[in-house]
Amino acid sequence: MRTYSIGELAKLAGVSIRTLRYYDKIGLLKPADRADSNYRYYGKEELYRLQQILFFKELDFELKKIKKLLDDPDFDRLKALDFQRKQILSRKDRLEKLLDTIDKTIEDLKKKKTMLTDEELYEGFSKKEIEEIKKEVIEKYDPKVIAESNTNVTNMTKSDFDAIKKEQIQQAKDLAELMDLAPDSVEVQAVIKRHHQTNEKFYKTNAEMYKGLADMYVSDSRFTEFYDKHQPGLAKFLRDAMYVFAENKLP
Question: Cα(233)–Cα(248) distance, rounded to whole angstroms?
Answer without folding.
Answer: 23
